[in-house]
Every structure is written in structure tokens, then in C-alpha cells.
């Protein structure tokens, strides 16, 4: 089965590039997310860290002296570690892991960063295709596609595609699902 | 037996024609049970409190009060009966009701998922039944999606049931071939032959104490009883004196008595629900009838069955007993409706299951790495407690925490081994099966056409052990059934063999 050509704005990774992740139990889907996804995850990491720093500061200020002296020493390094992970490491790692592909017969994604999840749904069993644009996503011109089936667990989510690509993919999937639909359950 | 249907062709739900009424006898049932009047009780209590002091406490006064309440109840029941009507057409069933505010509810027949015929004791006395129409739409859950037609004569209930399920008797549409619109389906299941699938042997009720949900029944009953005795005025409670529990024979007697109550209670409770369980095939449906006091008849469409489960609790495994249920699309987790055999010998349960779904063969074990992983997970919490206990023993002298941790760790070993022994998967020609769980071991057998997607998950530790968890997503039951910790390099092949050609997308490039 030959995969459909990648959507515009999606180049397959250059031939010499290192493999995105070590080989897993299933094939790695062909296409990467939009490069902007890294920026978006970084912004989310920064926002999360700001909240965490505020909480930690409040906790240290409010707690009476001598009550939990250990916290004074443990809390700042922990917050720092979290900041490095969520801003410096996680966005890049996620981008390297996340892949998606629409083949002749199925929608296929790979998501996660530490644990990885491959999800495959045949186009004949698609019930609904959703496109959502979150507030932060809109800043970067991104959108997410969710492909729903009759099973609550059989949902394929492709996060952070360029908005135009997402709309095109959703249209294409909805149209093809209509054509090849069998019982859908 | 199909009578003329009110306004059958061109039926317009916006202008409901006068529909059918339920049997007038239902008024008597409702009078006795204060069905409608019950909702006015709070108001009545307020009223009674306001004029309470003036009521004559003589027997005559009380009799008058009882008469008044009964007449009121009869009045409400009559109103309720008079204001309730239903009509069934080729395409929909319409129920109109409401004492003051009117409500008209239209349910398209092709949205009807199941019909349950129920006959509580009082209804049986009056020769009536109650019909529940399950018309849950999409993801909406809850009892408000149920339509109840209360108080029908059995013959009329049969007619309505057959009418609602006519569509089900039609052969499954061939894929790619549109069904002819307006084509009449085959005649409703009037005198269709019945084929018996399973007959419950009432001796199997003895398995009840081994099933958790039935074991809970006596406790619930005791709770209700103790609340009742608390409410009773003191002069009505007999003075039994305080038994001396410090004496050993008394204590033993009490324990034995309590055990007996629990055992008997669970058997009785299960008998009330499951007595005379019988599963028959009637046309395209499986009909299950059960119940000692309230007789219930539920119906499942065979075309919608996508698989089944065989569950064996720890206790049931000891006596080789099991229960089995069908996985039906659109039923969600409605376990009671899908039940094929509430409890029985494992052999019977399995035979019943494989009559509906092809037997895929003997299960294959998972690799030794899976056993290591189960063991590590099972003793993990015990080891943590043990470590904490050692620290606490040194600092606080709390040695019992360490002992507890040690016991948990040791107990974790058989638990982990048991959990590993449960794991297994197999692919047959048109079906496949996965099994897991220790407290309740559940084997799921699914038709290959049921799969609407695959999910392969690999955590960090699974990657190092070359394992993966493969979940088959299905539009029935809990939505997904996981094959935990199978060999990572077999995952894609298992998915491909257990569903359609499309799953070849998962196969890694050589």
C-alpha cells in the first residue's frame, strides 16, 4: 500500500537524518507535525513553569519559619528541574517522537515522549472528524484533528498541524469515510 | 396479531393522533403502590403538620385518614392513566404523558436498542407487564433515556415488542447494497420457533457466594434492617439483653451465624434475580427470561453481537465456575442486559460463548519478560512499605510497618505469578481472544470485524523488556480490550491477523 503524498508544507525527513526514535513494535508513521509545535509546547512549558514558580513562592512565604525547613532546600531545585525538563527537553523530544500519516486505508499516529502510543483507525470505521483550534494554537496558526470511531478508546488525535493542512486532512477523511463506510461499528 | 396502527402512513409526530391507552387495571396497581401520589407526600406531610393537632386519634379518625389517602391515590392513578397514551407507527413510537404539563416523546424505531418486559409480583397478580424501551442516543447515558410503558396486557406487550424489533428480524443489509426504502420487513416474530440456548440449573445458585456483587446483597439488607430498627420507637423493640461476647462459645456461635446469614443471603438474593434463567433464540434475537418475584424478559439482537466475555473470580476458579456475557454494539456497559449466563460451570459458560463467537483456539502465553514485569509490579508496593518500615523502625521504633511491608512483599509473589498466568492471546480464523486479570480473570473473545482501531502502547520499561500492550478498540463493551505485555515484535502481526488488511499499516519495514 503506497502512502498518499504528504500534504503541502510537510516534507518527509531528509534521507540522511537520524531515525527519529529507536525502532518500536510498529512502523513509524511518515510525516512530522508542524515545526511550530515545538514553539507551542515550549510556550506551554513556560506557562506551566510560571504557575509552578508562583505556587512554590507562595508556599515558601506562607509557611511559618522552621515548620518545614527541608522544603526550603528541596523545593527550588525541584522547580528548576521541572523547568529544564518541560521547557528544554520535552518539546524537542515530543517533536521527534510525534508522527502521523494518512494511508489509502487508515489514519495512523505515533504520540508520546517517554511512553509511546501508536494508534491506527481504518477510514471505513471513522464516525466523526473534529478540527479544534485552542487559544495558544491560534497564535501559532495551528490546529488539531481528532478522528472518532464507535469505540471510546479508538480515537486518533493528531495535534498541532498547520491550520490549512488540518482543514484539508479533515475534509479529505470525512469525504473518504463517506465513500467506504461499512457498518462503522 | 398486528392491529391497525393509529394513523400509520404519513404519521405526523407534531399532531399526535389519539394513541393507545394502557390497561385500566394499572390504576389499581398504582393506587396500591401510591405511584403518582408518592410525589405529593412532602406537601401532604406539611399539610398534616399544619392541621395535625386537630386530627382525632380515635380508630375512626385513623380509618378516615387511610380512606382519604387511598381515594386521593386512586384519583391520581386514574389521572395518570387517563393522561398517558402511546402510539406506534412504522417509523417511530410516540409516548404522551404528564398530569398538568404535557410531554410528547418520539423515538424513531431504528434508534430502539432493546426492549425489556418486566412483571413485578403485583403486576403478575393483575395480569399486567411493564415495557421498558431502551433508546439511548449516542454517548448520552442514564435512565432518563428509557421509555416506560407501564401496565400492558401481556398480549399487547408482545405485539408492541415485536413491532419495535421488526427491523431486527430483517436480514443484515449486504455491504454496498442500499436497503430498499419502505420495503416491508419480514413478519414480526409471531409464531417463530424458539431454540433454547441455555437453561439455568437452579442448583447453580450455590455459586452465588463466590460472586462479589451477590455477596454484597446480605450486607445491604442488614444495613436497611438496622436503619429500620433505629427508626422504630423504643417500646416496639424487644429487650434481648446484651449477649456476653467475651465467652468463646458465644463468639463462635455469633461468627457462624453471621457467616450463615451472609451465605444464605447471597444465595437468596441471587435467586430473586436469576431464578429460572433461560436463554432462547427467537428469530434474530436472543431472549433472556429470569427472576423469582419479578419476571424479566430482555432481548438482544444477534446481529449486533460482536463478541463475549468469560469472567471467573478467584473463588469461582476454585470450583470451575464462570459467568459469560455478550458484547453488543450500542449497549455500552449495560452488563445485565448482555448477560448470557449469570453463573454456572465453566464448561457451560464457554460452550454458550463459543456458540455465538467462533472459538479461536487455545491461548498462547506471553514471554518470560512479562512474568518479570508482573512480579516487579506486584511486589513493588510491598517493597516500598518495607523500606519505609525499616527507616521508621530505626527512627521511631515502629517495627510493625516493616512487618506489614514484608507480608505485602511475600504476598505479592503469588499475586504477580497469578496475574502472569492469566495473560494470554490467540488469533483464530474469524475471531481472536485476549485474557487478563487475577481477582476477576476475564477472557474476551471478539469477532475480527468488531475491531474499529488498534492502539499499541510501549512504556519506557516495556521498551527495555521488548514488550508492548496492544489494545483492540471495539464499539461494544468497555470500548477497548488490552493484550497486556505481549512480545513487542509480535504486536503488529497479531493486529494484522486479528482484523482486516488495513492493520498491515502497523507492520514495521524490514
UniProtKB/TrEMBL annotation, chain A:
InterPro entries in the cross-refs: YdbS-like_PH (IPR005182)
Protein origin, superkingdom: Bacteria
Entry keyword annotation includes Membrane: yes
Ranges for domain YdbS-like PH: 95-171
Bias-annotated ranges (Pro residues): 1-26
Key words, A-Z: Membrane, Transmembrane, Transmembrane helix
Membrane spanning stretches: 40-64, 70-89
Region annotation Disordered: where it falls in the sequence: 1-28
One Pfam family recorded for the sequence: bPH_2
PANTHER family linked to this entry: TRANSMEMBRANE PROTEIN-RELATED, UPF0699 TRANSMEMBRANE PROTEIN YDBS
Protein's name according to its UniProt entry: PH domain-containing protein
Provenance organism: Goekera deserti
Amino acid at each position: 500500500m503506497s502512502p498518499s503524498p504528504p500534504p503541502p508544507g510537510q516534507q518527509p525527513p531528509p534521507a540522511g537524518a537520524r531515525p527519529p526514535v529507536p525502532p518500536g513494535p510498529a512502523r513509524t508513521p511518515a510525516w512530522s507535525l508542524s515545526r511550530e509545535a515545538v514553539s507551542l509546547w515550549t510556550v506551554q512549558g513556560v506557562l506551566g513553569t510560571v504557575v509552578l514558580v508562583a505556587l512554590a513562592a507562595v508556599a515558601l512565604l506562607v509557611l511559618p519559619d522552621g515548620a518545614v525547613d527541608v522544603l526550603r532546600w528541596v523545593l527550588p531545585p525541584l522547580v528548576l528541574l521541572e523547568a529544564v525538563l518541560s521547557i528544554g527537553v520535552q518539546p524537542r523530544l515530543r517533536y521527534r517522537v510525534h508522527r502521523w500519516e494518512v494511508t489509502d486505508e487508515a489514519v495512523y499516529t505515533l504520540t508520546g515522549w517517554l511512553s509511546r502510543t501508536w494508534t491506527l483507525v481504518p477510514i471505513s470505521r471513522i464516525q466523526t472528524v473534529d478540527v479544534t483550534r485552542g487559544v495558544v494554537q491560534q497564535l501559532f496558526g495551528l490546529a488539531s484533528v481528532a478522528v472518532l470511531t464507535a469505540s471510546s478508546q479508538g480515537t486518533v488525535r493528531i495535534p498541532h498541524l498547520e491550520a490549512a493542512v488540518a482543514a484539508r486532512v479533515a475534509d479529505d477523511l470525512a469525504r473518504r469515510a463517506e465513500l467506504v463506510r461499512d457498518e462503522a461499528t | 396479531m398486528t392491529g391497525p396502527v393509529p394513523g400509520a402512513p404519513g404519521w405526523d409526530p407534531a399532531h399526535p393522533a389519539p394513541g393507545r391507552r394502557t390497561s385500566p387495571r394499572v390504576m389499581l396497581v398504582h393506587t396500591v403502590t401510591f405511584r403518582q401520589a408518592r410525589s405529593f407526600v412532602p406537601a401532604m406531610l406539611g399539610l398534616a403538620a399544619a392541621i395535625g393537632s386537630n386530627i382525632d386519634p380515635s380508630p375512626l379518625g385513623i380509618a378516615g385518614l387511610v380512606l382519604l389517602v387511598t381515594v386521593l391515590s386512586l384519583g391520581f392513578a386514574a389521572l395518570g392513566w387517563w393522561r398517558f397514551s402511546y402510539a406506534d407507527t412504522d417509523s417511530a413510537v410516540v409516548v404522551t404523558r404528564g398530569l398538568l404539563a404535557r410531554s410528547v416523546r418520539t423515538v424513531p424505531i431504528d434508534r430502539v436498542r432493546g426492549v425489556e418486559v418486566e412483571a413485578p409480583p403485583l403486576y403478575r397478580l393483575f395480569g399486567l407487564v411493564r415495557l421498558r424501551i431502551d433508546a439511548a442516543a449516542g454517548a448520552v447515558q442514564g435512565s432518563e433515556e428509557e421509555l416506560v410503558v407501564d401496565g400492558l396486557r401481556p398480549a399487547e406487550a408482545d405485539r408492541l415488542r415485536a413491532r419495535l424489533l421488526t427491523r431486527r428480524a430483517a436480514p443484515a443489509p449486504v455491504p454496498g447494497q442500499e436497503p430498499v426504502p419502505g420495503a416491508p420487513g419480514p413478519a414480526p416474530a409471531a409464531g417463530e420457533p424458539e431454540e433454547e440456548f441455555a437453561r439455568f440449573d437452579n442448583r447453580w445458585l450455590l455459586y452465588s457466594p463466590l460472586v462479589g456483587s451477590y455477596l454484597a446483597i446480605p450486607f445491604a439488607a442488614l444495613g436497611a434492617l438496622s436503619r429500620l430498627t433505629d427508626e422504630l420507637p423504643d417500646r416496639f423493640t424487644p429487650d434481648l439483653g446484651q449477649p456476653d461476647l467475651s465467652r468463646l462459645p458465644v463468639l463462635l456461635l455469633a461468627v457462624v451465624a453471621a457467616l450463615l446469614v451472609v451465605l444464605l443471603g447471597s444465595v437468596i438474593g441471587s435467586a430473586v434475580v436469576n431464578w429460572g434463567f433461560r436463554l432462547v433464540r427467537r428469530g434474530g434475537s436472543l431472549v433472556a427470561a429470569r427472576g423469582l418475584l419479578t419476571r424479566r424478559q430482555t432481548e438482544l439482537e444477534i446481529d449486533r453481537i460482536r463478541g463475549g466475555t468469560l469472567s471467573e473470580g478467584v473463588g469461582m476458579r476454585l470450583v470451575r465456575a464462570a459467568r459469560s456475557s455478550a458484547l453488543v454494539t450500542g449497549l455500552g456497559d449495560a452488563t445485565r442486559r448482555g448477560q448470557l449466563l449469570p453463573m454456572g460451570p465453566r464448561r457451560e459458560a464457554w460452550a454458550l460463548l463459543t456458540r455465538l463467537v467462533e472459538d479461536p483456539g487455545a491461548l498462547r502465553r506471553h514471554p518470560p519478560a512479562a512474568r518479570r514485569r508482573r512480579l516487579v509490579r506486584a511486589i513493588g508496593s510491598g517493597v516500598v512499605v518495607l523500606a519505609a518500615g525499616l527507616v521508621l523502625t530505626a527512627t521511631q521504633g515502629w517495627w510493625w510497618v516493616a512487618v506489614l511491608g514484608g507480608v505485602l512483599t511475600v504476598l505479592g509473589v503469588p499475586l504477580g505469578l497469578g496475574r502472569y498466568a492469566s495473560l494470554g492471546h490467540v488469533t483464530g480464523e474469524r475471531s481472536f481472544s485476549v485474557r487478563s486479570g487475577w481477582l476477576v480473570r476475564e477472557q474476551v473473545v471478539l469477532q475480527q470485524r468488531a475491531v474499529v482501531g488498534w492502539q499499541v502502547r510501549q512504556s519506557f520499561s516495556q521498551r527495555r523488556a521488548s514488550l508492548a500492550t496492544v489494545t483492540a478498540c471495539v464499539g461494544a463493551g468497555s470500548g477497548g480490550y488490552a493484550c497486556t505485555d505481549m512480545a513487542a515484535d509480535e504486536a503488529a502481526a497479531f493486529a494484522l491477523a486479528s482484523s482486516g488488511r488495513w492493520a498491515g499499516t502497523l507492520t514495521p519495514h524490514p
